[in-house]
Amino acid sequence: PFQSAAYTALLIAQGRAHPDLDLDLYRRGSVKANAEALIQCQGPGLQDRARAVGQIKSEELKPANRAATLALKARLEDMAVAKHKADAPMLVIYAGKDEYIKPEWTKKAVEDACKLGTKIEVDFEADKSHGTFDYTNVLPWLQDRIEGKPLKNPC
User: What is the dihedral of CA 20, 22, 26, 28, to 10 degrees?
Assistant: First the structure.
């Protein structure tokens, strides 16, 4: 279920970023029928989302054909991090017990971006899981950037 939920979230994000993307090439059945529930990420809609995730069958998320597979692969490769130095500093918050994103993946992406010269401040929360990390420092971090204050511990 975690992988289906993560993949569904990825599809939704790609659909928002690329309105020309035909999501129906990547979803059918309950995934298509429960599209509204599957975009919920907080509040009372989370129960609907959990129910909808529980209904997903793997075949409902298979790309319709090889061309669709290759097109999605190309989009994801294009957005991969650490291809070039970022234009602005980043705050990366990640969790050690994340059910969707392995912490070593994020650690490597940060290391790769740092090697390219991107300035990154990292907040690794080893005991947290996906969506349970402390994000209260995000707005103060952004305010510090607006005010031109230096990063505290950049790579």
Answer: 140
Distance CA 53, CA 30 (A): 9
Comparing CA positions, the residue from 125, 129, 97, 122 lying closest to residue 108 is 122
Report residue 66 CA to chain centroid gap. 24
Q: Is the dihedral of CA 125, 40, 142, 88 positive or negative?
A: positive
Local confidence pLDDT in tens for the 155 residues of the chain:
668 888 898 898 899 989 999 999 999 999 999 998 988 877 888 889 889 999 999 999 999 999 999 999 998 888 777 788 889 999 999 999 988 889 999 999 999 999 999 999 999 999 998 878 888 999 999 999 999 999 998 88
Q: Nearest Cα to 9, choosing from 56, 68, 69?
A: 56
CA dihedral 125, 128, 131, 137 (to 10 degrees): -30
Structure token digits, residue 149: 């204050």
- Beta carbons of 130 and 95 less than 8 angstroms apart: yes
